[in-house]
Probable tRNA sulfurtransferase (Vescimonas fastidiosa), 390 residues
Amino acid sequence: MHEIILCKLGEVVLKGLNRHSFETKLMSNIRRRTQKFGKFKIYSRQSTIYVEPVGDGCDLAGAYAACKQVFGLIAIARAVPCEKSKEAILETAKAYLGDSLRKAVSFKVESKRADKSFPMSSIQISQWVGGMLHDAFPHLKVDVHTPELTVYVEIREDAAYVHAPAEPAAGGLPLGMGGSALSLLSGGIDSPVSSYMMAKRGVVLEMLHFAAPPYTSDLARQKVLRLAQELTPWCGRMSVHIVPLTEIQEQIRKQCPEEYFTLITRRFMMRIADKLAKEFDCRALITGENLGQVASQTMEALRVSEDVTDLPVLRPLIGMDKEEIVRIARHIGTFDTSILPYEDCCTVFTPRHPKTKPHVEEVREIESVLDIEGLVSRAMEQREVVKVKL
Ligand code: ATP
Ligand code: MG
């Protein structure tokens, strides 16, 4: 049986005049993700993208799983095309969904007719196919409200398609349609989720991680690279820039009052992020900050940290509860790595009583004893980049 994948477009269909470029981008993203599973013909018709294996030896299950992680698709189903006649549709349903029909207790048939020249209406197709399936599988009950199995029939221009219920896909917008941004990736639970959330809006990510060797270990670094790797099925391949913060943190500790450590450290992070973003033509910074979660995440503290950049700082988790964040982290597959117990540079020097309501002017004044430019440029010079592939 010649099984194919039907991908239903999500918000892309709302894009009016831009729709064509969205669809083209989406198809090229699907092509890239499925290529390691064999050769597929990928084309779009009537708000659906078709992924059709060419020749034998394609791993359809692999391609299906990959498509489920492509942003821009709202639902996905495996389906079998057949000739546009009611008999062919019935035979295909029996052969393709026979096992499921035998196991189910109740069912219904739902039809859609995009090709209006087809001689039966959708209701007539459903009734006829449903009746014939009922004859063939007499144990089944017809239940139009809550059937255990729904058999879908679609009559389109080039063929009819029979499929079982579609599954939800990744949603969002095609990667590459939202420009690029620089995401600050720590080893925690939050920043992989914030990265994923912005990628879901079509944003291509460049990643930045701060380490503080020897205070932070190689294991902490490996953990961050593993998180980046776990993000690639969603966010695509990426570069992780690793910048050492050691000298900066030592200088802050030596020269600034303890209650300001975190705030001033965060300002350095933002300065470096700003520079790197501009170098890579990124139009925004992304962080996993969340209002009220820790002392450095009050509105006053956020104001102080973003004071050193003129780029928009996107904080997709700002109003979420930890529970919701954890749920997403589990869903995208980063949670188990995030909870590995390696230290982050932020936790190496944590003040006992961090300032929660800082003023920008006051912080600027306090940090003015530091050689800000020298520290930033030395840290930038020592950076390293690791390419993480899908
Ligand atoms: P996370 O779970 O993402 O580590 P958090 O709740 O621990 O977040 P903070 O440690 O205050 O909060 O960090 C807030 C945000 O700052 C992080 O979500 C991340 O975007 C950025 N950040 C923190 N530490 C680092 C780091 N070592 N490298 C890069 N970015 C970092
Ligand atoms: Mg953290």
